[in-house]
């Protein structure tokens, strides 16, 4: 159950295909990009994302944004070995701090961080099979579209009113967030939903379409905020991420431009020439004029 990924939500996630030497974008918009030797120059933590740890100060910022307090019962869904459960327990004094993690090895490591914390525990279980009815705040950072759909139904069914879900990059599905501090979002039950994607991104980003500049700035802010991309790879990841954001926006009919802008053509050329990454074939010649799909 992949989770701690260099995660781009509506541009989807980046993981490595186990059968091919490629970057693989497995959700709604699918790309197979040949990386050849460049793949070996990136650290596996950056590529796979499974070992990426959120910095403690970023966790504190996320929790402060979400308003964690002594009255809350906190759940981190897919906690991995981050310090979220310990920080919620010790520093935000929640009633209970619970991490759910499906991999036993990670549970073993995570439990070492909450020794002697009576109000904290790590549960080795599939989040889809976990009773969440007592949770008042949940941290949910997954990218798999099927998982998200399943969990949204579960949230609707099990969570009590006023329960808050903290997400990164975008709200879940077509939800309209009650709080926004990009790339952080809070959705509060009872959930509100946008009628279409343009309405949703209008609320989230302040505009009903996404242009090249917005794509670049969104990628840049996300990378800077999460601080998980090593400095030597930052420029490359910013270029690649912003291109994927813009291409997805174009293909979904929510790009502001009516023609492919020169900066996009230039960066696509750079990626192809210097990194042997060809994104040009993934740009639809006749994109839809509108869409009613979610951006994640």
Write the layout of secondary structure elements.
Blueprint: E1 15-16, E2 22-25, E3 31-34, H1 38-41, H2 44-48, H3 56-66, E4 73-77, H4 84-90, E5 96-101, H5 104-111, E6 120-124, E7 137-140, H6 145-158, E8 164-168, E9 175-176, E10 179-181, E11 184-188, E12 192-193, H7 197-205, H8 212-226, H9 231-251, H10 262-275
Parallel strand pairs: 4-5, 4-7, 5-6, 7-8
Antiparallel strand pairs: 1-2, 2-3, 8-11, 9-12, 10-11
Helix pairs in contact: 8-9, 9-10
Describe the structure.
This protein is of the alpha/beta class. The protein has a domain at 56-195: Vaccinia Virus protein VP39 (Rossmann fold, 3-Layer(aba) Sandwich). 36% of the residues lie in helices and 16% in strands. It is built from ten helices and twelve strands. The strands form three sheets. The protein has a seven-stranded mixed beta sheet, with helices on one face. A three-stranded antiparallel beta sheet has the order 1-2-3, with no helix packed on it. Strands 9-12 form a two-stranded antiparallel ribbon. Strand 5, helix 5 and strand 6 (120-124) form a beta-alpha-beta unit. Helix 8 crosses helix 9 (231-251) and helix 9 (231-251) crosses helix 10. The longest helix has 21 residues, at 231-251. The chain is globular. The two termini are 17 Å apart. Mean pLDDT is 80; it is low at 1-50 and 290-296.
